[in-house]
Amino acid sequence: MVRLDRLVNVLGGYGLRLVRCPVPRSTELGSVVLHEQTAGRTVVGDVLLAIGARSVAEAVRWAEAARAAVVLVRDDAAAEPTGDEHPVAVIIVDPAVSWSEVAAVVYGLVVEGRETESGRGPTDMFALADSLADAIGGAVTIEDRLARVMAYSRQQQHADRARAETILGRQAPELLRAFFAARGVGAHLESSDEPLFVTEDAEHGFTGRMVVAVRAGRELLGSVWVTCPQPLDGAARQALVDGARTVALHLLRSRASADLERQVETDLVLQLLEGTADAATVVSKLGLPQAPMRVIASRVDIVEQERHAALLLAFDRATTGFGWSRPGRSAVAGTTLYTVLPGDGTSAARAWVTALRAALPADLTVMAGISAPAAADSLPAARQEADECLALHETRYSSSVPPAYEESWDQILLQRLRTAARSGRAPARGPVTELRRHDAEHGTHYVATLRAWLRAQGDTGEAGRQLGVHENTVRYRLRKMTELTALDLQDADKRLAMTIEVAALDSPSAQPAASKPDQN
Fold first, then answer.
1. What confidence tens digit (pLDDT) does each residue in 212-271 have?
2. What distance in Å separates the CA atoms of residue 143 and residue 24, rounded to the nearest whole number?
3. Each residue of 351-382: b (16+ CB within 10 Å) or e?
4. How far apart are the C-alpha atoms of 32 and 10, rounded to whole Å?
5. CATH 3.30.450.40, the chain: domain bounds
6. Angle, alpha carbons 48-24-252 (nearest 5°)
7. Strand, helix or coil at 131?
8. Tens digits of per-residue pLDDT, 34-71?
9. What was the pLDDT predicted at 507?
10. Is the pLDDT of residue 115 over 50?
11. Each residue of 174-205: pLDDT tens digit?
12. In its keyword annotation, does this UniProt entry include Heme (predicted)?
């Protein structure tokens, strides 16, 4: 079921507003009814569409008779006092939004929404495209507001190269979109409900198009395109106009169902990642296999003021399509997009990140980290691994290939040590600290030399090659170090401690310092 709070939030996006709410926002809603009687009995349900109510008070009385928790009533209904004794929430419907559009959204959320958790998708847009093509007599394509193809007809009458490229790419090619923009198509769709004819153009490979806006109230939802060599008129033109209204209802229902599907998915994924529910049950609800999974943590960035919008766009792309059609399940927490992906190989996880990058605008930067494979009840730990790999990608990796935990655990361990050192847990005294202080005061390279010698496991020749100096210089520096501080290079435990401290205090980009043989 959908809660009243969710219904109010979604309807707010269509210009509807909650004006009275004496019932809890957590009230669950499971049915939608109109004001009517059958066999002498009032039809009852949780949400009442008060079509025809002459006042808010009358709508509330209808709702009480129907035992409804919430009533939707027109903005132009007389606003009579209703009193707080009536336990009915009142939502006002904007005059610019038709009852048909409101009904599509409410039914999509309350009625269809009950089945989205099991993977049910929205109304079949392809069947609608076929029906429109038959009525109009030309190939039909239905696109959303971002010009992404949502459905297309089987009929190929007047089909051309541009249509084929648009369908194959799931979006019109960039050059074709630029051409339409130059012809004023976008501006027309934003401002007019009348169909527009775009004449044929051999360079762009199309024979002509009739396009009409798909709108809900004042909001542009998308467009319907018909391939035709001449402008449509008469019955065909009217069929296109009427068809656009029908498409609007389908898009509203689709969006409402998809929105609820995302809410359910987000809640379940976060339960998995936080370990707050039975993992096997949640995995089953998400439609994922009871097998090893990886957690992918992603961040999407552009300019500072658009970071949140970029994250939401990435979430939209990651959750496009209903559960059965996607390999992973995603949720947004804070500034991070988390995806639970079945499989224990890194290639599939990296392919998922690559596909996300390809689906986003080119000016967005995607950074990601991939956990090691984990069972369902170990996903909270996998989330931490993914977070640390993401931090590693953001701070140390210039490559577009996101790091995976099993390949990068050593760098993550060092990163943890650096974090501990920055929090003030590094030794305040000791050989390494004293050598670092001496380097800062006298311009020597003792810490770099010690680091190279430890990495070379005591091989002065190899240490010299790392530093770009002769091995005798390395020996000289080591001797000087033992004179300056209590540096015991013979004790294995002390060598291990020095290795850890040097690594912890190194910056991520620290490399052995090169110097000339005559330098100390």
1. 999 877 778 899 999 998 999 999 999 999 999 888 888 776 666 667 677 888 889 999
2. 38
3. ebbeebbebbeeebebbbbbbbbbebebbeeb
4. 16
5. 125-254
6. 45
7. helix
8. 999 887 888 899 999 999 999 999 999 999 999 999 99
9. 57
10. no
11. 888 888 999 999 999 999 999 999 998 888 77
12. no
Q: How far apart are CA 356 and CA 366, in angstroms?
A: 8
The radius of gyration of the chain's CA atoms, rounded to the nearest angstrom, is 32
Which CATH superfamily includes the segment(s) 286-416? Reverse transcriptase/Diguanylate cyclase domain (3.30.70.270)
At residue 274, does pLDDT exceed 70?
yes
Would strands 209-216 and 219-227 be described as parallel, antiparallel, or unpaired? antiparallel
Query: Regarding the domain delimited by 125-254, which CATH topology (the fold level of the hierarchy) does it fall under?
Result: Beta-Lactamase (3.30.450)
Coil, helix or strand at residue 347: helix
- Percent of the chain past pLDDT 70, that is, above it, reads 85
- Compute the C-alpha angle 39/41/42, nearest 5°: 130
The fold adopted by the segment(s) 2-113 is: 3.40.1390
Give the Cα-Cα-Cα angle 386, 290, 407 (nearest 5 degrees).
30
With contact defined as beta carbons under 8 Å apart, do 343 and 293 qualify?
Answer: yes
**CATH 3.40.1390 domain position(s) in the chain:** 2-113
CA distance 360 to 172: 15
Contact predicate 8/24, CB 8 Å: no
Cα dihedral 346, 352, 355, 360 in deg (nearest 10)? -120
**Encoding tokens for residue 282?**
């949640």
